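OP here, attaching both records as promised.
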Amino acid sequence: MTARKVIVADDHPLFREALSLALGQALGDVLVVQAGDMDELQQVTNTHDSADLVLLDLHMPGVQGFSALVYLRTHHPELPVCVVSANNNGMVIQRALDHGAAAFIHKSATVDEIRVALETVLAGDIWQPAGFDGNGKGSAVDELAVAERLGELTPQQFRVLMMLADGLLNKQIAYELGISEATVKAHMTAIFRKLEVSNRTQAVLLLNQLAVDSPDQTATGFQSAGGVA
């Protein structure tokens, strides 16, 4: 039987290793490819385009809110994305599912829960955590419209926008990407056009609609016990 190939995207090396061990227990023969930030995630999804699924943390360097999930669903629609998060807020779970997540797995999930979730996703279905009824408030229409516009960006334009959101100046973005300031300005023009905004401030405010609530905001959450982290 061919080994499953799973991309694990999380900025904490110890958790990536723990999750890799859990994947081995849950799926048996599995090849794990790791990514610690958005740049690495873009690289590995391009290199390993035959991967079976992605396990994605919502909080990584180079990511703003649900932007990484939106990026993956747009540029790799054939690749199921399972969000793995310490956030148990019901509204966050619903928003992740609205943006195309195939599963939402809490970081305290047991190996058995992970196995059931992954088998469900690999069978082509959507998995929701126990105790989540899906009847709560999800993504607003405006938020989904922002996600659709964000999906129109090329991978390089996406990187530029994330750096812009981090407060980098054009010359800093140019240095980080190894391109000219003129090229950065050209990317900015295209980004503003696709996002239907006219300046950096408006672009950042628009992107803020994809922000994820703090993991400790659990008023509308559910309870999950025992697990890998």
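Record two, same layout:
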Amino acid sequence: MSDELVGKTALVTGASAGLGVDFARSLARRGADLIVVARREDRLHEVAQELEKEYGVGTEVIAMDLGTPGAAAELYAEVNERGRQVDILVNNAGFGICGPFLGSSCEGYETMMNLNMLTPVQLTRLFAEDMVERQWGRMIQVASIGAYQPSPNYGAYAATKSFIRSWGEATDFELREHGVSCTVVSPGVTETEFFDSAGQNQRTWYQKLSIMDSPTVAEIGVKAMLKQRMSIVPGFMNAFNCWMTRFLPRRMVRWVAYLTMKDVK
């Protein structure tokens, strides 16, 4: 355990499983106190107790569905009511919808877009203002390698992550002069509950080839945040593939994405 974040408090959304837990663990390892947020209150308490026991940091639990309208303002108000100061914001909560565009409901897309785009923007807007006033703050916005290309069968999800990537990088530029940085982390295929919740029952050949474990991805993201990097794609294969998209016609990029994902069911 290091002490580089002792005295700082980090708020991590989607912290009941997967990358959210591992972001929280990586920050706790560096001495940060935690506010963990997700829908599953019982799981959040388990995570909080684990982090307190292993790293001796303070933890607080806020159970909330961030995919509902007004959730960001409600969370911000709750944090202020508890008298907590957020120095590090990790916007990790999100989910995907797998399958043909016409195969899912409008309601499903609306919830996904709320959680993946609107809530991160609103949380960042609210907490960043306080960070700017203090002239110090760090943020992670979790995007995806899907942000780098149109992705048939994950089209709407990938588009939400394209939004996060573009907006997050622009926000980093705007806030730098105020001592606040915003790092966009774009993971590739990661061993989490994502595929199950997205409705994808089996991994494609590309996913099996490129999959990374969640703790490694989270650690790369936190290190990038501490270095105040604008953006990072964890994993050499993922980074190389994203870099290559800039040299290919968009029509071809779309086909490549389709061929690597055509076995999704």
